[in-house]
Specification:
heterodimer; A: alpha/beta; Ubiquitin-like (UB roll); FAD/NAD(P)-binding domain; five-stranded parallel beta sheet; 16 helices; extended; B: 158 residues; alpha/beta; Rossmann fold; four-stranded parallel beta sheet; 6 helices; 4 strands; globular
Amino acid sequence: MVNITINDQEYDIEEGKTILEAAQAMGLEIPTLCYHKALSPYGACRLCTVEIELNGRTMYQASCQYLVEEGMNIQTESERVVNGRKKMIELLLARAPEAEDILDLAYKYGVKDTRFLKEFDDVCILCGLCIRVCHDRMGFKAIEFINRGIERKVSLPFEDFHEVCRTCGSCSTYCPTGAKAVQLENLTHHTPRPILSEFDQGLATRPAVYTPFPQAVPKIPVIDRNNCIHFQTGECKICQDVCEPDAINYEQEDEIVEREVGAIVVTTGFDPFDPNRLPQYGYGKYPNVITSLEFERISSASGPTEGEIIFPGVTEIKSAAILHCIGSRDENTNRYCSRLCCMNALKAANLIRDKLPDSHVYEFYIDIRAAGKGYEEYYQKMLRSDIRIIRGKVAEITNIPDLPEDEGRLTVVAEDTLLGAILRVPVDLVILMVGIEPKKDARDLAHILHLPCTEEGFYNEKHPKLAPTETVIEGIHVAGACQFPKDVPDSVAQGESAAAAVLSKIARGEYITEPTKAEIVDDHCSGCRNCIGLCPYLAISFDEEEEIAKIDSALCQGCGVCVASCPSGAIIHRGYTDKQIFAEIEGVLER
Amino acid sequence: MVVTDEKTIENTDWEPRIVGFLCRWCSYAGADLAGISRLDYPPNSIFIKVPCTGRVDPTFVLKAFADGADAVFISGCHLGDCHYIEGNYKTMRRFEILKETLKQLGIHERRFQLTWISASEAQKLKEFLTSMTSSIKELGPIQLPILAPLQKEDKQDD
């Protein structure tokens, strides 16, 4: 520990720290441009220069490089320090008059203009952050300073593209001028491939270390192994240096955790319908044809456009069309109703009208399904507004305009079935209200849990009215859209109901199951193993010692498939024995 | 060989007797709905509840024919909709084999049918029963001469 004084305040600082580190740890602000915690100090910008008084001598040193010594008296904001800093800013301003960080600093220190010649219209301030991160951390050494003096600049070796660049983008990420000075396209002939944010529906980019979405549970960042430079080259490790609680662990592996549980609640949710399956709507072909989920992100204040409804290539949104039932209530895709899209569509229309009051919004619907608390009232309110709600399914979306002034806009072709007229509406934005589909791997999970599914792949409840969260498998419950399309209130209600049902069963400590189960009469079983492959619940196993099949009555659900298949009649189905059913047949056919 | 007396049957007001094996989850519930909905359907069918159509042992069908049923049908959940995951697929396979066997025994293929009726399809059940009953009426009573004495012997054994 060394005792130093910063701005007339005494501090005990760990030995080996730089003055800048010490000051930052104490919450003091020293301006920097070329310093970064994860990189070795470089002392290029000289902005962090402070006044140091030691053993009766005064000196001016860059605090990012100078180590603390016992008895130092440091001034970070003395008149001479500030004057020097202003001069530095003037020099930097002369070199890079457009750089935002420098303009900010100039404003902060009251520097209005530079006395020096503005010889360069460059934005690069030669801080070397990009080069240091590429050399020290990424280990690629793809860029370097070339030339000397006023010719000095960041460039490629021999000013030629080279294979070593992996287009990781660290150079532009670290550039204090906001990536204006180092642009990837000037440094590599590879096409930079941004990592698209899954949560923002691919409309924004994300880093390789990210929190999956703002409400994620647990809300902690994860490392995307496929894109992290460290997992490809072993270099970088910047996040480990920056993380103060030391929470980064590169050794962590995916692991399979086995737990013994008394009950399972399946809440795997849904997949949105993929509108690429309906090419007539031009999704993926026209940038301003978007899905309801993409619109949700665009209209969100925390989304990629900060809530502004803007698209690349579209200057002004004069009108928008909202198409209902994309992938719902359609013989060609899904026959069922996805239940929540009608209200979502009305909400989207309302949002567009709020954000763009001069725009026209058209809704194309088959039927409005507004069943829910307050939903009908909302629909009635929308009907009274100036949103045009048109009954008719859209046939096609085309970029061939009817009138020359609509060049570059989209045309929605639909029939208004109430008027009996074909409409061709020019619009600038099309929102496809995509339906709900079972998860792609819903059937795989069903197979693991032995859950019955509907034709579409939604999990079947035991009874729609009497046991809406239970399944035929005792102890496995379902909730949410994995059972069938449901909105948030319904999913919450079912989830709570399932949790309560599970808790009440766990509290009881044992399950009460139906007595109608299959049982093997040991003496009659010939050990043919016919039944084993037939059981959908894997309840039958073969006893190698006794050479007979055994049924686990906890797993058996009493379907009776094995009973009907047993060639020796060795399986008894309690409640539905052969004798009982024969008696029934005799009874009903008695003359 | 004892031959059943065709004349006696023709002279009476003959009505076909049909035995249906209905699965507990879909078709039996569908039949319940038909009742609740007060749908009219021919009273010739008598339903036997089974947990799943997969429980229908071929001997049940043979037993029903042996005991004098003019037709037998099996009705379960739609394919992919089975409450026991895949019981109805097993039934479907068994049905095809059993139908061939019954054909060889001289039982017309229309006398043994398989259908999928869900719990909400009371109307479909009604239509199925109506068409099945009228088609069996067209075929007339089942003629299985050798089965009559066997049935008696069975009973004597008991």
